[in-house]
Specification:
The complex is a heterodimer.
Chain A (H helix, E strand, L loop, with lengths): L24 H9 L9 E8 L5 E3 L7 E11 L6 E6 L11 E9 L5 E8 L3 E2 L11 E8 L8 E10 L3 E10 L7 E6 L5 E11 L4
Antiparallel strand pairs in A: 1-12, 2-11, 3-8, 3-12, 4-7, 4-11, 5-6, 5-10, 8-9, 9-10
Chain B lengths: L4 E8 L7 E3 L9 E11 L5 E3 L1 E6 L10 E9 L5 E8 L6 E3 L7 E8 L8 E11 L3 E11 L5 E7 L7 E11 L2
Antiparallel strand pairs in B: 1-13, 2-12, 3-9, 3-13, 4-8, 5-12, 6-7, 6-11, 9-10, 10-11
The chains are: A mainly beta, B mainly beta.
């Protein structure tokens, strides 16, 4: 108990955006754990990984309704493979390799725009063009929605820009249309080749009820 | 330490709602807002595409006149994509396909610019996802504008068909600190 102005469990009432009093570090710790301490910055970094192997797995998703991922300067080892992602329903022990649907629009700087779509896909979505020469990297961001809600499907929306033999952008969305908890994300290539380098950061969007 | 995305409001959708109002969320504190539509579904077994977003003006009235225009791409996993546009409509389309909870949900991310500026139009950029048993997976990417310069203090997620009510989901609103 800090003092008469500090946080007391009974009074004054504390909530996000409405904290009153003077707080000790323990008060702040307790209130933060109870989601009752106002601490702006609702895009919370969960983990950043540097790629250097065939897959990059995120097995700790925290407790969020919406996740956000950035991928930067991704380089693939093989010139013909695509950067992609998959979900797991067993904490990352295995990753689902069928039954996805996605709809993506692609835009090339010197070729026709087009549709990449399907209802029986092996990956959640593609994330970038082929190409592994110098500076042929993939960059972009992804939102994931209700991955951890077992009553809903797991969706994503993607935006990416990459260099291959040409520069090309992608935007669209994908789904694993099974109502179950998807508690790990894998970044991989469609050919099983290595992700040679680049960074991938996973964030959660904090909300308060 | 403050960063640049600040939580403002969570609205939990009540089953049976015809429209969902998120009011008094825009202020002079921010110029841009991020809105997350999360896991929204129908109250009954019907494949639907929710009609879209309308804004709430400074007096608390929903702007229902043909003061909106929009353009976007409706993207289907199982069929050809389509262009959707209007120069004068009573809402901004998002392309949000949904169904009853067990058959599909919709959501996405909106970026809303300048709502609190009485001398500016209010702009919206959206990217959505969805699923229903008629369309399978589908998503949208849209731009829209409320082409009247006035102060906007909130928004409404809108469906006019009285046989197609909201079943649940939530809407999160954040301010983008500048």
């Amino acid at each position: 108990m800090s003092n008469e102005f500090g946080y007391l469990p009974e009074s004054p009432e504390q909530s996000f955006g409405n904290n009153k009093g003077i707080f000790t570090p323990k008060d702040i710790y307790d209130l933060t754990r109870a989601d009752k301490y106002t601490n702006y910055g609702q895009l919370e970094l969960i983990q950043t990984q540097t790629a250097s192997s065939a897959v990059v797995d995120f097995t700790n998703l925290g407790d969020f309704d919406v996740h956000f991922v950035t991928f930067n300067d991704i380089v693939l080892s093989n010139d013909t493979t695509l950067f992609a992602h998959r979900l797991s329903n067993d904490g990352g022990t295995s990753f689902i390799s069928s039954g996805y649907q996605y709809a993506i629009q692609y835009m090339g700087v010197n070729n026709s725009y087009g549709e990449d779509k399907g209802t029986t896909k092996l990956i959640l979505t593609t994330l970038g063009l082929t190409g592994n020469d110098t500076n042929e990297t993939k960059n972009g961001y992804i939102y994931y929605y209700h991955l951890l809600d077992s009553s809903k499907f797991s969706f994503c929306t993607i935006n990416s820009f990459s260099m291959g033999s040409i520069a090309e952008g992608l935007f669209g969305s994908g789904v694993k249309a099974t109502a179950e908890e998807h508690n790990a994300i894998r970044f991989c290539t469609t050919g099983g080749d290595a992700i040679s380098s680049g960074t991938i950061s996973l964030y959660g969007l904090k909300a308060y009820s | 330490m403050a960063t640049n995305l600040e939580f403002i409001n969570e609205t939990v959708i009540t089953s049976g709602s015809q429209n969902v109002n998120v009011d008094n969320v825009f202020s002079d504190k921010y110029k841009a807002y991020v809105v997350e539509l999360v896991g929204i579904f129908m109250s009954t077994d019907v494949s639907n595409d929710f009609e879209g977003i309308r804004f709430i003006d400074n007096s608390g009235s929903v702007v229902t006149g043909n003061e909106y225009c929009y353009a976007g791409l409706a993207m289907y996993a199982g069929s050809s994509f389509g262009e959707v546009r209007s120069t004068s409509d009573g809402k901004i389309r998002l392309f949000s396909v949904a169904d009853q909870l067990s058959d599909g949900q919709t959501g996405g991310t909106l970026l809303i610019s300048n709502p609190n500026d009485s001398s500016s139009f209010t702009y919206l950029l959206s990217q959505t996802y969805g699923f229903n048993t008629s369309d399978n997976h589908a998503g949208g990417k849209f731009i829209g504008v409320h082409k009247t310069a006035e102060t906007i203090r909130g928004f409404q997620f809108h469906e006019s068909n009285t046989a197609r009510k909201f079943g649940g989901g939530k809407i999160l609103t954040y301010g983008v600190k500048s």
